Amino acid sequence: MYRFLLSRQWVILTLIALLLIPTMIELGFWQMHRYEERRARNDLVAAALEAKPVPVQRLTSPGHTVTTGQRYRTVTAVGRFDPDREVVVRRRVSSDDKVGFHVLTPFVLTDGRVLLVNRGWIPADGPSQTAFPKIPAPPAGRITVTGRLMPDETTEASGIKNLEGLPERQVMLIDSAREAERLDARVLGGYIVQTAPEPKGDSPEPIGAPGDENAALNYAYALQWWLFAAGVPLGWFILARREARERAADASEPAETDPVAVTTPAP
User: Fold this and answer.
1) Helix, strand or coil for residue 86?
2) Helix, strand, or coil here: 151?
3) CA dist 196 to 117, 146, 148, 206, Å?
4) Could you tell me where the beta strands, DSSP code E, fall in 84-172?
5) Number of domains in the chain
């Protein structure tokens, strides 16, 4: 009854099923790994945002690389802004998906070192984004700023190419080492996203806090792949049984016979 399984069609179908099962199982494990990674990142971000603010000098220094555990930590700094030497970061998107700039302003600490402060987003003056935009002035004099500590940006992490030949005072990536050369100063590693004091007139537009990554979606995908893997042999078995029943039914039907011609003898 099941000799048809040795036919070319069924051999190919069986081989495909045998390949699909481990592939789907592996995809399920990959999605589960992504789920665990995202959940761990969410836990790190939540812990960093909930931690008490600390002076920025406790977490970073000139040449320091901001670690994963330090990212998003709330820090404070005392000093003054230096708007005459600020730059803008190109091709940055606002909360409503408009393309413009981030404003990167040096903040001179009381000990003379410099902290890079991302003050927020502003629109471009034109579609070309070649002209230096009008930037709202930061608070003058000695103040205390608060922000979320961030690592230097890289092309590998952000996908943004660090183009050369840009207009004056425009950059593609926030890089404390490059800014240290440009400013000829001791610049702390990384930068902060300013959260306080809030800008007057809502400009620059503050950069929102990071949200949770949807780890549950990866968990659902993992279960889905494993269900698919379990469904492949079940589907194969159902198809084989149906094929066997159809062949058995065809074999049990009586064969049609040709009518026999009757000849009448001549008188």
Assistant:
1) coil
2) coil
3) 11, 5, 10, 9
4) 87-93, 99-109, 114-123, 143-150, 170-171
5) 2
Using only C-alpha atoms, what is the Rg of the chain?
34
Smallest Cα–Cα separation from 151: which of 104, 108, 200, 193? Answer: 193
What does the block give as tokens for 81?
Answer: 């802004």
Which residues contact residue 42 at a Cβ distance below 8 angstroms, ignoring those fewer than 6 apart?
Answer: 212, 213, 215
Q: How many CA atoms within 13 Å lie on the side-chain side of 103?
A: 27
Predicted pLDDT at 141 = 95
Q: Is the same domain home to 183 and 91?
A: yes
Question: Given a cut of 70, is residue 93 above it in pLDDT?
Answer: yes
Q: Is residue 89 part of a domain?
A: yes
List pLDDT tens digits, range 37-88.
Answer: 989 888 888 988 899 999 999 999 999 999 999 999 999 999 999 999 999 9
Q: CB-based burial of residue 209 (10 Å sphere; 0-12 exposed, 13-18 middle, 19+ buried)?
A: exposed
The answer on 149 and 124 residing in a single domain is yes
Same-domain check for residues 28 and 63:
no
Reference 31, options 214, 212, 225, 213; nearest CA is 225
Asked whether residue 106 falls in the same domain as residue 219, the answer is: no
Instruction: Tell the residue number behind the tokens 């198809």, with chain if given.
Output: 239
Residue 260, pLDDT > 60, answer no
Domain that holds residue 164: 52-202
Q: How many residues does the chain have?
A: 267
* Any domain includes 210: no
- Residue 197 included in any domain: yes
Residue 265 lies in a domain: no
Which of these ranges, 178-187, 196-205, 209-218, has the smallest mean pLDDT? Answer: 209-218
Q: Are residues 28 and 132 in the same domain?
A: no
Residues 196 and 225 in one domain: no
Mean of the per-residue pLDDT values for the chain? Answer: 89
Do 227 and 197 share a structural domain? no
CA 142 to chain CA centroid, Å, is: 38
